Every structure is written in structure tokens, then in C-alpha cells.
Amino acid sequence: MATSRAPLRFAEAVSATVSESAGSGFFFDYDGTLAPIMRDPGAVFPVAGAVARLQVLARLVSKVAIVSARPAAYLRDRFSGAPQLRLFGLYGMQTVEDGRVRTDAEAELWAPVMRRVAEEAARDLPREILIEDKALIVALHYRSAPALRGAVERWSSRKAAELGLREQYGRMVVELRPPVERDKGTVVAREIETLTRAWYFGDDLSDGRAFDALRGREERDPAFMGVRVAVANTETGDELARVADFTVASPEDTPALLDHVISAFPGRPPAVGAGSRHR
Ligand SMILES: O=P(O)(O)OC[C@H]1O[C@H](O[C@H]2O[C@H](CO)[C@@H](O)[C@H](O)[C@H]2O)[C@H](O)[C@@H](O)[C@@H]1O
Questions:
Q1: Is 139 close to ligand 1, i.e. is its CB under 6 Å away?
Q2: C-alpha of residue 19 to centroid of ligand 1, in Å
Q3: Domains in the chain, start-ordered, CATH in brackets?
Q4: Residue 268 Cβ contacting ligand 1 at under 6 Å
Q5: pTM (2 decimals)?
Q6: So what's the ipTM on this one?
Q7: Angstrom distance (rounded) from CA 180 to CA 165
């Protein structure tokens, strides 16, 4: 991922978005971007104020979406307060349409294989490893036992080779998933086709593909503006921050950045401390 254009100023990015709101979209990763990182994935909820900000934003621009590795049903639950959001789960293998989860047919064919992977992981891996069975993706979490990272990665690589699966590394996690052409980059590339401005917020390795999708579109279409926002963290954040236009310090700071964007729309009250950050 290479940065090729002059640095974008936050105020310019915001005003270009406001002036073409009907062609603008906002895309968000979930864990580590809109929600804190915790040991128990099941205990995580969006940070205070995030859902409300997204709902406001969804009324102001063309499209606001969550693009996550979580199952779509999980996202539907966590973002029920923002019904206008578009939800892409399992790296785009699932979406929510009219309140119902729709799973990609090609990915669905892998359900029996992934069930077997979850069973074998439970049998083979030490019990300190948290196995998150997302039906079409098996996540192997070593946050409670970082010393077991090597063992987890070796097991995962063997299983991927044996069964023809893909691996995705993340924050103290390795995931095994079907070899279908879906990732955050393919989702974003498709969803921005009708847009002229798009922002993507992320914190992790898989979000780099979404950044690349914005960059690729910019290279083909000089009228398009992509805005990459990295949410800082010491685990996987550096790589993303290096190629981001802006960085926020933590998921808890994401709503404040959105306030600066929202307040720039006509008729919106000014954000507290507007213009003082995100340069
Ligand atoms: O695409 P995302 O929405 O960012 O999902 C990526 C993974 O997030 C979750 O794992 C991460 O957050 C957990 C909860 O804070 C944390 O315990 C774990 O160490 C992190 O890797 C989720 O559990 C995974 O399924 C997602 O793939």
C-alpha cells in the first residue's frame, strides 16, 4: 500500500464530503474501530455514542455501512438502533436484507468443512485458546495465552493447506475461512462504484484491503476522493496508520471525529472543539 497524493487536510475532506453528500459514503470496521478490544468477543458492544452518530450520518449521506468479520446477525443485533446502516458480515459473505441475513451461496457450501474445523480445533488446541465458531469462519483467539501464538498459527496453516481454506491474521487471532473471493476490499470496491467520496475507518490487517480499494479507485478516477482513517493500536495498528490519511487514538475517539463531520452539514450545531484535531 503506497501513499501517492499530497496529504489530505481534514477540513478539506469534510467539506468535499458535505458538498457532495448524495455521492458520499462512510464504511466502518467494527472491533477495534467502533468497539473496544476485550478478552471475551461476546461481551463487546459499540462504544458510547457510536450507534447514534452512525444513524445521524446515514440520514446525511448516501450510504453508511459496517464491514466486519463478525456474523451479520451479530451486527444486526448490535446496530439495531441504526436501521439505515448497511451491514456486511463475515468479510462480505453475509449481508442483511430487509432484516434477514443473506449468506453467499458459494460460501454456504463450505459449512460442513468449517464445522469440522471447529470440532478439530476444539480437540487439538490447548484449552486456553478461545475458539469462536462463526459457522463459516473459525476464529482461533490467543489473547488469553499470547505464548501459544506459534502453535495456533502452525495448526491453522496445516489445516488451511489440508482443506484448501484461507487464513486471515488479526489482533491476537487467526481465522480460517472458505476460499471465496470476499474480503473487505471486494465489498468496499463494489459499494463505492456509485460514490464520488468514501471514508473507511479500520484498525486491523484485514482493513488494509479496504484502504487499497479506495486507493485503487482514486488511481482510476481522479474525481473520486477516498479518506482512510486508522484507529491506533499497538498490535496491528502501525501498518494501517502508515497509509492512513488520519488517525484516531482509540475506538472511543471515533464518535468525536464523526461529530466534526456531522457538524459541518448545514443546520447542524458545531462540534465541541471543532477543527482542533485530525489534521
Ligand atoms: O472485522 P472486525 O469487526 O474488526 O472483526 C475482527 C475480529 O474481531 C473480534 O476479535 C477481536 O476483538 C475481540 C473482542 O474485543 C478480541 O478478543 C480479539 O482478540 C480480537 O481479535 C472477533 O471476535 C473476531 O471474530 C473478528 O474476526
A1: yes
A2: 35
A3: 10-38+49-63+76-81+182-197+207-263 (3.40.50), 107-177 (3.30.70.1020)
A4: no
A5: 0.95
A6: 0.99
A7: 9
